[in-house]
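Researcher: Here's the sequence for the chain we discussed earlier.
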Amino acid sequence: MVQGATAAGSPPPLLRMRGIDKSFPGVHALRTIDLDLKRGEVLALLGENGAGKSTLIKTLGGAHQPDAGKITIDGQPLVIRNPHDAQQAGIGIIYQEFNLVPAMTVRENLFLRPGSHRLGFIRAAEERQQAEQVFNRIGVQIDPDALCRNLSVAQQQVVEIAKALLLDARILLMDEPSATLTLKEVNKLFAIVHELRSQGIGIIYISHRLDEIFELADRVMVLRDGEHVGTEPIDQLTRDSMIEMMVGRTLSKEFPTRSVEIGEDRLIVKNLARGTAVRDVSFSVRRGEVLGLTGLVGAGRTETARLIFGADRKDSGTIQLDGNSINPQHPRQAIASGICLLTEDRKNQGLVLGQSVRENFGLPNLERFTRVGLLQQNKERSSFLGYVQSLQIKVTGSEQLAATLSGGNQQKVVLAKWLERNAEIIIFDEPTRGIDVGAKYEIYLLINKLAAEGKSILMISSELPEILGMSDRIVVMHDGRVSGEIEDVAAATQQQIMRLAIGGAA
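Model: Thanks. This is the structure I predict for it:
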């Protein structure tokens, strides 16, 4: 047999990983993982948080060294000792956190690497031409002389892709590339992925959004607890079978059922307004109800939540809670009234990542755990551990840093601190963004449990299946206004919501 050829005589896959094993102190992160990637293929890499996806990607990118296993590209053995080796082999990685210098131009970022300048001289005109060529290759227009800090998130992502292509990348690894993009930007990303695939580039695509997987992937590879569960063609998978592979158990439904007697109006918002972001918004949330609030990015959903929470000042309108008028001028006043907000950006706005989970839990509850000016850490710890049990928060202990938790467990810590405040109106802004499917189900169960206890839930989400699967009623916003309300959620469709979201009639 010719070296590198398969038994059938066909050429070897673009990338082959065999028996990849990696351990860290106390954690066996990867257990003899096998992976094949073909030319011009999109391979979706799925798994819950902690399944080993990031470790596998970092091993291929040279950030980690495998303890065992072999890697070949085009049938040739490859040893990847560092990120430079990976780049030299034609492997490009687009991480969620971009590696750009904001104060430098697009062109300068593209060519900010050793060996890109001849004899120490910068060839600006030639670099500009190459930059335009690579942007044309993927069908976008970006000014090479624009400062990166002035670019949108989607444009910065394109610059990262262009950097990899300028290094002759044949393999692209994309880690949650759509997480912070608008719907229009996501569609553009899809077009870029399709174009790169048509050029023979192999793409490993990581996403928690299953709709994207069906849109883009040729095959799906699933990891669970560091092991390779299986790889299947996309046309042989359903949404339910994909979820079952990831979580290792059958979920009878992606969204748990809830049977709650919905009571009287508790939160009533009338004619709420702030500039052009929120214009004459009115709705109510009832006892035991999950009210879904949706719309396209920029519709005014989060801005409305911030007005209710006192994070921004309203220009006009009224807010009533349990029949009493309130006018929160600051989050402290909203919290004192029993309103809490779990922000969309939990890492920057919901948690202090450098502090322990106990300290994060205690921050809005210090008066409960303070006596004569002294913090009673034992009381604070005991209270927090009670929520660890009731919310099933996976932590090694109360002193674990918040930054080291998975997205789902970070969300639970944020929820725990608000429940300790006896919050009655709970606003979830994108509650499952960046959270794997198994942890999503746990968050859904918690939302249902809170509603069953008589709490009133306002759930903001861009994911239409989530809105339809979790809401008792749905309010849709467009251009700062309420464009429609859906009472019969069981009969509603995603198309109906989208018509309202773009300003049309249901």
